[in-house]
Design a protein that fits this description.
Layout lengths: L6 H16 L8 E10 L9 E6 L4 H10 L5 E9 L2 E9 L4 E13 L17 E6 L3 E6 L5 H9 L6 E5 L4 E5 L5 E11 L3 H4 L8 E4 L6 H4 L7 E3 L7 H10 L2 E2 L19 E3 L14 H17 L3 E3 L11 H15 L8 E6 L5 H6 L9 E7 L13 H17 L3 E7 L14
Parallel strand pairs: 11-12, 11-18, 12-13, 14-15, 16-17, 17-18
Antiparallel strand pairs: 1-5, 2-4, 3-4, 3-5, 6-10, 7-9, 8-9, 8-10
Helix pairs in contact: 1-2, 1-3, 7-8
Protein backbone atom coordinates (compact mmCIF):
# COMPACT_ATOMS: atom_id res chain seq x y z
CA UNK A 1 0.00 0.00 0.00
CA UNK A 2 1.04 3.58 -0.57
CA UNK A 3 2.46 5.21 2.58
CA UNK A 4 0.73 8.34 3.86
CA UNK A 5 3.06 11.36 3.98
CA UNK A 6 4.15 12.63 7.38
CA UNK A 7 2.85 15.97 8.65
CA UNK A 8 6.22 17.59 7.86
CA UNK A 9 6.26 16.12 4.36
CA UNK A 10 2.69 17.28 3.74
CA UNK A 11 3.49 20.79 4.90
CA UNK A 12 6.59 20.79 2.72
CA UNK A 13 4.54 19.78 -0.31
CA UNK A 14 1.86 22.37 0.36
CA UNK A 15 4.16 25.30 0.98
CA UNK A 16 6.31 24.42 -2.03
CA UNK A 17 3.28 24.35 -4.29
CA UNK A 18 1.96 27.63 -2.91
CA UNK A 19 5.19 29.53 -3.31
CA UNK A 20 5.66 28.13 -6.79
CA UNK A 21 2.36 29.75 -7.62
CA UNK A 22 3.40 33.05 -6.06
CA UNK A 23 6.54 33.00 -8.16
CA UNK A 24 4.36 33.35 -11.26
CA UNK A 25 2.09 30.38 -11.93
CA UNK A 26 -1.50 31.19 -12.90
CA UNK A 27 -4.17 28.55 -12.36
CA UNK A 28 -7.20 30.35 -13.66
CA UNK A 29 -9.38 29.22 -10.74
CA UNK A 30 -12.54 31.09 -9.81
CA UNK A 31 -14.00 31.38 -6.32
CA UNK A 32 -17.37 32.36 -4.89
CA UNK A 33 -16.81 35.43 -2.68
CA UNK A 34 -18.84 37.38 -0.13
CA UNK A 35 -18.00 40.94 0.86
CA UNK A 36 -17.61 42.07 4.50
CA UNK A 37 -17.55 38.50 5.78
CA UNK A 38 -14.98 36.36 7.58
CA UNK A 39 -14.89 32.75 8.81
CA UNK A 40 -14.15 31.29 12.22
CA UNK A 41 -13.04 27.75 13.03
CA UNK A 42 -15.01 24.91 14.62
CA UNK A 43 -14.23 26.27 18.08
CA UNK A 44 -15.63 29.71 17.18
CA UNK A 45 -12.04 31.02 17.14
CA UNK A 46 -11.08 33.31 14.27
CA UNK A 47 -7.59 31.78 14.03
CA UNK A 48 -8.44 28.15 14.64
CA UNK A 49 -8.94 27.18 10.99
CA UNK A 50 -6.07 29.27 9.60
CA UNK A 51 -3.69 27.31 7.40
CA UNK A 52 -1.31 30.01 6.14
CA UNK A 53 -1.34 33.81 6.25
CA UNK A 54 0.19 35.67 3.31
CA UNK A 55 0.92 39.37 2.94
CA UNK A 56 1.25 41.69 -0.05
CA UNK A 57 -1.31 39.71 -2.07
CA UNK A 58 -2.68 41.95 -4.81
CA UNK A 59 -6.36 40.97 -4.85
CA UNK A 60 -9.06 38.63 -3.60
CA UNK A 61 -8.71 36.73 -6.88
CA UNK A 62 -5.00 36.16 -6.18
CA UNK A 63 -5.94 34.95 -2.70
CA UNK A 64 -8.41 32.57 -4.33
CA UNK A 65 -5.65 31.22 -6.57
CA UNK A 66 -3.43 30.64 -3.55
CA UNK A 67 -6.20 28.70 -1.82
CA UNK A 68 -6.71 26.58 -4.93
CA UNK A 69 -3.07 25.57 -4.74
CA UNK A 70 -3.49 24.03 -1.27
CA UNK A 71 -5.11 20.59 -1.04
CA UNK A 72 -6.20 21.43 2.52
CA UNK A 73 -7.50 24.95 1.79
CA UNK A 74 -11.25 25.17 1.26
CA UNK A 75 -11.93 28.78 2.28
CA UNK A 76 -10.11 32.09 2.41
CA UNK A 77 -10.45 35.65 3.70
CA UNK A 78 -8.86 38.69 2.08
CA UNK A 79 -8.50 42.25 3.30
CA UNK A 80 -6.93 45.32 1.72
CA UNK A 81 -6.64 48.30 4.01
CA UNK A 82 -4.27 51.16 4.76
CA UNK A 83 -1.82 50.62 7.61
CA UNK A 84 0.16 53.79 8.15
CA UNK A 85 1.78 54.77 4.85
CA UNK A 86 1.56 51.20 3.51
CA UNK A 87 -1.29 49.14 2.12
CA UNK A 88 -2.02 46.04 4.19
CA UNK A 89 -2.91 43.22 1.78
CA UNK A 90 -3.58 40.05 3.75
CA UNK A 91 -4.69 36.65 2.49
CA UNK A 92 -5.71 34.08 5.13
CA UNK A 93 -6.09 30.52 3.88
CA UNK A 94 -8.48 28.37 5.92
CA UNK A 95 -9.50 24.76 6.32
CA UNK A 96 -12.98 25.46 7.73
CA UNK A 97 -15.84 27.97 7.59
CA UNK A 98 -17.74 26.61 10.58
CA UNK A 99 -18.85 30.07 11.66
CA UNK A 100 -19.25 33.03 9.33
CA UNK A 101 -19.50 36.52 10.78
CA UNK A 102 -19.60 40.13 9.67
CA UNK A 103 -16.17 41.77 9.31
CA UNK A 104 -16.03 45.05 7.42
CA UNK A 105 -13.34 45.24 4.77
CA UNK A 106 -12.91 41.48 4.41
CA UNK A 107 -13.80 39.45 1.33
CA UNK A 108 -14.24 35.75 2.02
CA UNK A 109 -14.70 32.93 -0.40
CA UNK A 110 -14.90 29.25 -1.18
CA UNK A 111 -12.36 27.63 -3.49
CA UNK A 112 -13.97 25.88 -6.47
CA UNK A 113 -11.56 22.97 -6.18
CA UNK A 114 -8.45 21.82 -4.38
CA UNK A 115 -5.39 20.95 -6.42
CA UNK A 116 -3.94 17.47 -6.10
CA UNK A 117 -0.27 17.91 -5.28
CA UNK A 118 2.73 15.64 -5.70
CA UNK A 119 6.10 15.62 -3.97
CA UNK A 120 8.04 18.73 -4.86
CA UNK A 121 11.50 17.12 -4.86
CA UNK A 122 14.52 17.18 -2.58
CA UNK A 123 15.82 20.31 -0.91
CA UNK A 124 19.26 21.54 -0.04
CA UNK A 125 19.37 23.91 2.94
CA UNK A 126 22.32 25.34 4.77
CA UNK A 127 22.72 24.27 8.36
CA UNK A 128 20.57 26.47 10.62
CA UNK A 129 22.22 29.42 12.32
CA UNK A 130 20.50 30.13 15.63
CA UNK A 131 20.07 33.63 17.03
CA UNK A 132 20.90 35.45 13.78
CA UNK A 133 18.52 37.44 11.58
CA UNK A 134 19.08 39.26 8.28
CA UNK A 135 17.77 42.77 8.65
CA UNK A 136 17.64 44.37 5.22
CA UNK A 137 16.84 41.58 2.78
CA UNK A 138 13.14 41.05 3.54
CA UNK A 139 11.05 40.37 0.41
CA UNK A 140 7.75 41.34 2.01
CA UNK A 141 6.50 37.77 2.39
CA UNK A 142 5.86 36.14 5.75
CA UNK A 143 4.33 32.65 5.97
CA UNK A 144 2.61 31.72 9.22
CA UNK A 145 1.79 28.23 10.47
CA UNK A 146 5.05 27.05 8.88
CA UNK A 147 5.81 23.68 10.47
CA UNK A 148 9.59 23.88 10.80
CA UNK A 149 12.94 25.06 9.42
CA UNK A 150 12.88 22.63 6.47
CA UNK A 151 9.42 23.78 5.41
CA UNK A 152 10.61 27.40 5.50
CA UNK A 153 13.56 26.39 3.33
CA UNK A 154 11.13 24.80 0.86
CA UNK A 155 9.18 28.04 0.65
CA UNK A 156 12.33 30.07 0.02
CA UNK A 157 13.64 27.68 -2.60
CA UNK A 158 10.49 28.06 -4.66
CA UNK A 159 9.92 31.79 -4.27
CA UNK A 160 11.44 34.00 -6.96
CA UNK A 161 14.33 36.10 -5.60
CA UNK A 162 14.57 34.30 -2.25
CA UNK A 163 18.09 33.20 -1.26
CA UNK A 164 17.85 33.42 2.54
CA UNK A 165 15.18 32.95 5.17
CA UNK A 166 14.49 33.31 8.85
CA UNK A 167 12.28 30.99 10.89
CA UNK A 168 10.72 31.80 14.27
CA UNK A 169 9.41 28.69 16.02
CA UNK A 170 7.52 30.73 18.62
CA UNK A 171 4.88 31.81 16.09
CA UNK A 172 5.80 29.41 13.26
CA UNK A 173 6.66 32.35 11.00
CA UNK A 174 8.86 32.05 7.92
CA UNK A 175 10.42 35.27 6.61
CA UNK A 176 11.63 35.18 3.00
CA UNK A 177 14.71 37.26 2.19
CA UNK A 178 16.66 38.20 -0.90
CA UNK A 179 20.00 38.84 0.79
CA UNK A 180 21.85 38.35 4.06
CA UNK A 181 22.75 42.04 4.42
CA UNK A 182 23.13 43.48 7.93
CA UNK A 183 22.95 40.32 10.00
CA UNK A 184 22.00 40.96 13.63
CA UNK A 185 21.38 39.02 16.80
CA UNK A 186 17.80 37.81 17.32
CA UNK A 187 17.36 35.10 19.92
CA UNK A 188 14.03 33.93 18.53
CA UNK A 189 15.10 33.39 14.92
CA UNK A 190 16.94 30.60 13.13
CA UNK A 191 18.31 31.69 9.75
CA UNK A 192 19.52 29.79 6.72
CA UNK A 193 20.04 29.83 2.97
CA UNK A 194 19.08 27.61 0.05
CA UNK A 195 21.04 26.38 -2.95
CA UNK A 196 20.02 27.23 -6.49
CA UNK A 197 18.55 24.45 -8.67
CA UNK A 198 21.87 24.37 -10.53
CA UNK A 199 23.71 23.75 -7.31
CA UNK A 200 21.24 21.07 -6.27
CA UNK A 201 21.95 19.23 -9.53
CA UNK A 202 25.49 18.43 -8.35
CA UNK A 203 24.67 17.37 -4.78
CA UNK A 204 24.42 13.62 -5.42
CA UNK A 205 27.12 11.56 -3.72
CA UNK A 206 29.96 10.48 -5.97
CA UNK A 207 33.15 8.59 -5.27
CA UNK A 208 35.13 11.70 -6.18
CA UNK A 209 33.70 14.30 -3.85
CA UNK A 210 35.45 14.97 -0.55
CA UNK A 211 36.12 17.69 1.98
CA UNK A 212 39.02 19.08 3.98
CA UNK A 213 37.89 19.51 7.59
CA UNK A 214 39.65 20.53 10.80
CA UNK A 215 37.90 19.01 13.81
CA UNK A 216 34.81 17.38 15.27
CA UNK A 217 32.88 20.67 15.19
CA UNK A 218 32.55 20.23 11.41
CA UNK A 219 30.41 17.10 11.86
CA UNK A 220 27.07 18.94 12.06
CA UNK A 221 27.85 20.57 8.71
CA UNK A 222 29.06 17.35 7.09
CA UNK A 223 25.74 15.68 7.96
CA UNK A 224 24.01 18.10 5.59
CA UNK A 225 26.46 17.48 2.75
CA UNK A 226 25.00 14.32 1.27
CA UNK A 227 27.39 14.39 -1.69
CA UNK A 228 30.54 13.80 0.40
CA UNK A 229 32.13 10.33 0.20
CA UNK A 230 35.59 10.96 1.73
CA UNK A 231 37.41 13.50 3.91
CA UNK A 232 40.77 14.33 5.43
CA UNK A 233 42.11 16.70 8.10
CA UNK A 234 45.80 17.28 7.20
CA UNK A 235 46.75 14.84 9.97
CA UNK A 236 47.90 11.26 10.45
CA UNK A 237 44.62 10.35 12.12
CA UNK A 238 41.26 11.82 13.07
CA UNK A 239 40.37 12.47 16.69
CA UNK A 240 37.86 10.08 18.23
CA UNK A 241 34.83 12.32 17.68
CA UNK A 242 35.64 13.14 14.06
CA UNK A 243 36.41 9.51 13.22
CA UNK A 244 33.09 8.40 14.72
CA UNK A 245 31.35 11.09 12.68
CA UNK A 246 32.88 9.66 9.50
CA UNK A 247 31.90 6.11 10.46
CA UNK A 248 28.31 7.11 11.24
CA UNK A 249 27.95 8.92 7.90
CA UNK A 250 29.71 6.30 5.79
CA UNK A 251 32.52 8.69 4.83
CA UNK A 252 36.00 7.32 4.08
CA UNK A 253 38.81 8.92 6.09
CA UNK A 254 42.20 9.52 4.41
CA UNK A 255 45.23 10.28 6.65
CA UNK A 256 48.23 12.40 5.67
CA UNK A 257 51.98 12.35 6.36
CA UNK A 258 52.14 16.16 6.55
CA UNK A 259 55.89 16.83 6.56
CA UNK A 260 59.26 15.99 8.09
CA UNK A 261 60.36 14.46 10.36
CA UNK A 262 58.25 11.42 9.55
CA UNK A 263 55.68 10.28 12.12
CA UNK A 264 54.42 7.18 10.38
CA UNK A 265 53.68 5.38 13.66
CA UNK A 266 50.78 7.81 14.14
CA UNK A 267 49.13 7.05 10.79
CA UNK A 268 45.68 5.43 10.82
CA UNK A 269 46.51 2.17 9.06
CA UNK A 270 42.85 1.19 8.67
CA UNK A 271 42.70 3.66 5.78
CA UNK A 272 42.96 2.67 2.13
CA UNK A 273 45.06 5.68 1.07
CA UNK A 274 47.87 7.79 2.54
CA UNK A 275 48.35 11.38 1.40
CA UNK A 276 51.92 12.67 0.95
CA UNK A 277 53.60 15.88 2.15
CA UNK A 278 51.41 18.99 2.28
CA UNK A 279 52.49 21.77 -0.12
CA UNK A 280 56.22 21.01 0.07
CA UNK A 281 56.96 23.85 -2.38
CA UNK A 282 55.72 26.43 0.18
CA UNK A 283 58.09 27.75 2.84
CA UNK A 284 55.02 28.40 4.99
CA UNK A 285 53.85 24.76 4.72
CA UNK A 286 55.88 21.52 4.88
CA UNK A 287 58.79 23.24 3.02
CA UNK A 288 60.70 20.18 1.78
CA UNK A 289 63.26 20.20 -1.01
CA UNK A 290 62.61 17.63 -3.76
CA UNK A 291 65.83 15.74 -2.90
CA UNK A 292 64.93 15.47 0.80
CA UNK A 293 61.39 14.41 -0.08
CA UNK A 294 62.76 11.64 -2.29
CA UNK A 295 65.02 10.38 0.50
CA UNK A 296 62.12 10.27 2.96
CA UNK A 297 59.73 8.72 0.45
CA UNK A 298 61.60 5.44 0.63
CA UNK A 299 60.32 4.96 4.19
CA UNK A 300 56.86 6.27 3.33
CA UNK A 301 56.56 3.78 0.48
CA UNK A 302 57.75 0.88 2.66
CA UNK A 303 55.25 1.80 5.36
CA UNK A 304 52.39 2.03 2.88
CA UNK A 305 53.26 -1.32 1.32
CA UNK A 306 53.48 -3.03 4.72
CA UNK A 307 50.03 -1.74 5.61
CA UNK A 308 48.42 -2.34 2.22
CA UNK A 309 47.83 1.38 1.66
CA UNK A 310 47.87 3.21 -1.65
CA UNK A 311 50.05 6.33 -1.92
CA UNK A 312 49.08 9.78 -3.11
CA UNK A 313 51.99 12.05 -4.09
CA UNK A 314 53.14 15.14 -2.19
CA UNK A 315 50.70 17.95 -2.96
CA UNK A 316 52.96 20.49 -4.68
CA UNK A 317 50.59 23.35 -5.39
CA UNK A 318 49.94 26.58 -7.24
CA UNK A 319 51.30 29.84 -5.84
CA UNK A 320 54.22 28.33 -3.97
CA UNK A 321 57.80 29.54 -3.57
CA UNK A 322 58.70 27.23 -6.44
CA UNK A 323 56.61 25.94 -9.36
CA UNK A 324 54.52 22.88 -8.44
CA UNK A 325 55.17 20.85 -11.58
CA UNK A 326 58.86 21.74 -11.47
CA UNK A 327 58.98 20.53 -7.85
CA UNK A 328 57.36 17.21 -8.79
CA UNK A 329 59.66 16.77 -11.79
CA UNK A 330 62.66 17.21 -9.50
CA UNK A 331 61.15 14.89 -6.88
CA UNK A 332 60.67 12.06 -9.38
CA UNK A 333 64.05 12.86 -10.94
CA UNK A 334 65.81 12.47 -7.58
CA UNK A 335 64.01 9.20 -7.01
CA UNK A 336 65.26 7.86 -10.32
CA UNK A 337 68.86 9.05 -9.84
CA UNK A 338 69.01 7.64 -6.30
CA UNK A 339 67.37 4.35 -7.18
CA UNK A 340 64.37 5.01 -4.91
CA UNK A 341 60.98 3.58 -5.86
CA UNK A 342 58.77 6.67 -5.81
CA UNK A 343 55.86 5.16 -7.68
CA UNK A 344 52.55 6.70 -6.56
CA UNK A 345 48.94 5.74 -7.19
CA UNK A 346 47.74 9.32 -7.72
CA UNK A 347 49.02 12.89 -8.07
CA UNK A 348 47.76 15.49 -5.57
CA UNK A 349 47.76 19.27 -5.97
CA UNK A 350 45.95 22.41 -4.75
CA UNK A 351 44.74 25.51 -6.58
CA UNK A 352 42.93 28.64 -5.38
CA UNK A 353 41.29 30.58 -8.20
CA UNK A 354 38.11 32.64 -8.50
CA UNK A 355 37.72 32.27 -12.24
CA UNK A 356 35.28 29.83 -13.92
CA UNK A 357 37.35 27.12 -15.54
CA UNK A 358 40.52 28.39 -13.86
CA UNK A 359 40.79 25.51 -11.40
CA UNK A 360 40.74 22.72 -13.94
CA UNK A 361 42.68 24.81 -16.44
CA UNK A 362 45.60 24.69 -14.01
CA UNK A 363 45.29 21.15 -12.72
CA UNK A 364 45.06 19.66 -16.22
CA UNK A 365 48.81 20.31 -16.39
CA UNK A 366 49.33 17.42 -13.97
CA UNK A 367 47.95 14.94 -16.50
CA UNK A 368 51.52 14.66 -17.85
CA UNK A 369 52.28 12.14 -15.08
CA UNK A 370 49.66 9.71 -16.43
CA UNK A 371 48.21 9.13 -12.99
CA UNK A 372 44.79 9.79 -11.49
CA UNK A 373 44.57 13.36 -10.15
CA UNK A 374 43.50 14.27 -6.62
CA UNK A 375 42.63 17.95 -6.17
CA UNK A 376 42.86 17.99 -2.37
CA UNK A 377 42.31 21.73 -1.82
CA UNK A 378 40.46 24.32 -3.84
CA UNK A 379 38.35 27.39 -3.18
CA UNK A 380 37.89 30.90 -4.53
CA UNK A 381 40.98 32.91 -3.58
CA UNK A 382 43.62 34.50 -5.78
CA UNK A 383 46.26 36.01 -3.52
CA UNK A 384 48.35 37.39 -6.36
CA UNK A 385 45.52 39.63 -7.56
CA UNK A 386 44.22 40.29 -4.03
CA UNK A 387 40.89 38.64 -4.87
CA UNK A 388 40.01 36.70 -1.70
CA UNK A 389 36.62 35.35 -2.57
CA UNK A 390 33.54 36.32 -4.56
CA UNK A 391 31.30 38.79 -2.80
CA UNK A 392 27.90 37.59 -4.03
CA UNK A 393 26.19 34.31 -3.29
CA UNK A 394 25.08 33.85 -6.91
CA UNK A 395 28.61 34.25 -8.32
CA UNK A 396 30.02 31.85 -5.74
CA UNK A 397 27.42 29.25 -6.71
CA UNK A 398 28.35 29.68 -10.38
CA UNK A 399 32.04 29.22 -9.56
CA UNK A 400 31.45 26.05 -7.54
CA UNK A 401 29.03 24.57 -10.07
CA UNK A 402 31.38 25.22 -12.97
CA UNK A 403 34.36 23.67 -11.17
CA UNK A 404 32.53 20.58 -9.89
CA UNK A 405 30.82 19.84 -13.19
CA UNK A 406 34.13 20.02 -15.09
CA UNK A 407 35.92 17.75 -12.61
CA UNK A 408 33.07 15.25 -12.38
CA UNK A 409 33.03 14.92 -16.19
CA UNK A 410 36.78 14.19 -16.48
CA UNK A 411 37.63 10.57 -15.74
CA UNK A 412 41.31 11.30 -14.94
CA UNK A 413 40.18 13.24 -11.85
CA UNK A 414 39.76 10.53 -9.24
CA UNK A 415 39.01 12.69 -6.20
CA UNK A 416 38.66 16.29 -5.09
CA UNK A 417 38.13 18.05 -1.77
CA UNK A 418 36.81 21.55 -1.15
CA UNK A 419 38.55 23.61 1.53
CA UNK A 420 36.53 23.81 4.74
CA UNK A 421 32.91 24.24 5.78
CA UNK A 422 33.07 27.64 7.48
CA UNK A 423 35.42 30.60 7.75
CA UNK A 424 37.31 29.83 4.57
CA UNK A 425 40.02 31.84 2.85
CA UNK A 426 37.80 34.76 1.85
CA UNK A 427 34.18 36.02 1.74
CA UNK A 428 31.65 33.23 1.20
CA UNK A 429 34.37 30.64 0.55
CA UNK A 430 33.38 28.20 3.29
CA UNK A 431 30.61 25.83 2.20
CA UNK A 432 28.26 27.30 4.84
CA UNK A 433 29.49 30.92 4.86
Amino acid sequence: PTQQPTRMARNLILVTALITYLAAVAYGQSCQTTDNTDYKGPGNNAGESNLVILYNIASADSCCQSCSTFAECKYFSYSKAAKGAATYQQCILKTSSAVSYSNSGYISGVSSKAAKLTHAGSLTCSSPTSGIDYDNGFLGQTLYNTADYATCCAACQNYSGCNYFGYAASNKACYLKGSNANSKSNAGVVSGSIMTPAAASVVKRTGKRGLGVFDTSSCSDIKLMTGISWAYNWAAQADKGLKQCFIDLGIEYVPMQWGLPLALSNVDTSAKYLLGFNEPNFKSQSNILPSAAADAWKDVASFAKANNMKLVSPSASAGGDSDAIQWLDQFFGNCTSKGIDCNVDAIATHIYSCYPGGVKGYTDGFKKYNKPIWLTEFACADWESGNLGITTWEKMQAYVNDTLNRIEADTQYERYAYFGTRGGVGPLTGVFD
